[in-house]
Amino acid sequence: MQVPAPFDYARASSVDEAIALLERLGPEARLVAGGHSLLPMMKLRLATPEHLIDINPLADELGYIREHEGEIRIGALTRHREILESDLLAERFPIVRDAEQLIADPPVRNRGTIGGALCQADPSEDLSAVCAALGGVAVIRGAAGERVVDMTEFHRGPYETAVGEAEMLVEVRIPVRAHGGSAYEKVKRRTGDWATAAAGAALWLDGADIVAAGIALSAVNPTSVRSTRAEEALVGAPPSEDAFARASALAAEDCEPVADQRGPADYKRHLARELTHRALRRAAERALAS
Amino acid sequence: MQINLTVNGETAAAEAEPRTLLVHFLRDTLRLTGTHWGCDTSNCGACVVLVDGEPVKSCTMLAAMADGHEIRTVEGMERDGTLDPVQQGFIEEHGLQCGFCTPGMMLTARALLDANPTPTDDEIRVAISGQICRCTGYKNIIAAIRWAAEHGEEDEVLTSPGGEANDVVTSPQGEGA
């Protein structure tokens, strides 16, 4: 039987209370949201927090998707299912629904949250790549106040984030820009599995040319990272198969896949190129139709 | 710690360690063994119950997190001796063989039909995609859920469900332990 090691349980009824509890209980305290990353790690003793602070009572305070001053704001406790079903997100950023349809499975999506997924910082996690490709930022709150961290700076390594002790991720913000399109492509062995490789792409057009691009890959690097060289290769060019081929070759060149039970490194690198190309093609179609 | 929740419409209260998982709280503390305990890794879906009407894998939720919430298990599907149309559908379409995945499958089907009374086959497939059946190849499960969609609440009494039908849809105590 897999059961977590003993811990003390506390429930937070506000963000301030959660932060105060983190400060009081110290570094052996962990927040738990949906629990679908942390509880499996606790069952395996890969995580053994002495105190668990349940923030599910904050679902009203931190569970939202709203448009505000030219950006979409997503509360950290918004569950995968709410993100998948959000027509606002699907309209503004189709990449989000592309990715959410392929995250875990429906019962898991009923519990798992965007904040939990980003803070788990699994190298194969999808929303990190989605938020990075869209140029999103993370809002982190502590007793001293809030700070805003670019998604490219949020991940410090596998399972490590910019969230410090006695701080919590409270919101993700994604800028809304005109004439954009986005898409996510993922290969996984079966429903519920992590990606073998995945690629997110976002393009913004001005007339016939690409004026900005965001490309982020998942499962082929120690963390989800943007492919800067591939992005730069696209800016100023018209959206064409040639441009996408050049960019996806650069993205594949710059990634660092490792062999595991999901496949050898060269296969994953092949996927990185092909999935980036497909994501760019679909993002461009959507940008042109927008 | 004290856990207070509603299970199948009735309030329940019991002591549990904070680390107690909901599946064990239901099976071992409340003795509701119709919820099955499978892979323990949130993959198989045998332990699915409805939390506030939504399917959740109860092996990956603390009982403490269910405090104050409404739980529905397979024991709560039959009402006043009448099977839920989903249960009847599993009988009509032979939607089970060994029965291990059945409670979770039926609860997911119930939640799907509550939200979407006329799902397509694709929507049914997506709804049960987090749950594993090793007997039926899913074909009969999909047919069973479609049967339930086509036979609403009003014509749910098709056969006298009595003891025989109940034996099919509820699990013997201890299965999966």
Percent of residues in β-strands of chain A? 25-35%
Helix-strand makeup class of chain B? alpha+beta
What is the CA-atom radius of gyration of chain A, in angstroms? 19 Å
Quick one: CATH class of the largest domain in chain A? Answer: Alpha Beta
Percent range of helical residues of chain A: 25-40%
- Overall domain count of chain B: 2
Count of alpha/pi helices of chain B: 6
Order of helices and strands of chain B: EEHEEEHHHHH
Largest sheet report of chain A: 5 strands, antiparallel
Rg over C-alpha atoms of chain B, rounded to the nearest angstrom? 15 Å
Q: What is the 3D shape of chain B?
A: globular
Oligomer designation: heterodimer
Helices and strands of chain A, in order, run as EHEHEHEEHHHHHHEEHEEEEEEEHHH
Under CATH at level 1, the class of the largest domain in chain B stands as: Mainly Alpha
Strand percent estimate of chain B:
5-15%
SS-based class of chain A: alpha+beta
C-alpha termini separation of chain A = 52 Å
Shape assignment of chain A: globular
Terminal CA distance of chain B: 24 Å
Describe the protein.
The complex is a heterodimer of chains A (290) and B (177). Chain A is an alpha+beta fold. Chain A has three domains: 8-55, Uridine Diphospho-n-acetylenolpyruvylglucosamine Reductase, domain 2 (2-Layer Sandwich); 62-175, Uridine Diphospho-n-acetylenolpyruvylglucosamine Reductase, domain 3, CATH 3.30.465.10; 180-289, Enolase-like, domain 1 (2-Layer Sandwich). In chain A, 37% of the residues lie in helices and 27% in strands. Chain A has helices spanning 15-25, 38-43, 59-62, 80-85, 87-92, 94-100, 106-109, 114-120, 127-133, 151-154, 228-234, 241-254, 265-289, and strands spanning 8-11, 29-32, 51-54, 65-68, 71-75, 137-142, 145-150, 155-157, 160-161, 167-175, 180-187, 197-206, 209-218, 225-226. In chain A, strands 4-5-10-6-7 form a five-stranded antiparallel sheet. In chain A, strands 11-12-13-14 form a four-stranded antiparallel sheet, with helices on both faces. In chain A, helix 12 packs antiparallel against helix 13. Chain A is globular and about 55 Å long. Chain B is of the alpha+beta class and 177 residues long. Chain B folds into two domains: 2-76, Roll (Ubiquitin-like (UB roll)); 85-169, DNA polymerase, domain 1 (Orthogonal Bundle). Chain B is built from six helices and five strands. Chain B has helices spanning 22-29, 85-92, 102-115, 121-127, 139-150, 162-169, and strands at 2-7, 10-15, 48-51, 54-57, 70-72. Chain B has a five-stranded mixed sheet with strand order 2-1-5-3-4, covered by helices on one side. In chain B, a hairpin with a 2-residue loop joins strand 3 and strand 4. Chain B is globular. Residues 154-177 of chain B have low confidence and may be disordered. At the A-B interface, strand 1, helix 2 and helix 7 of A face strand 4 of B.
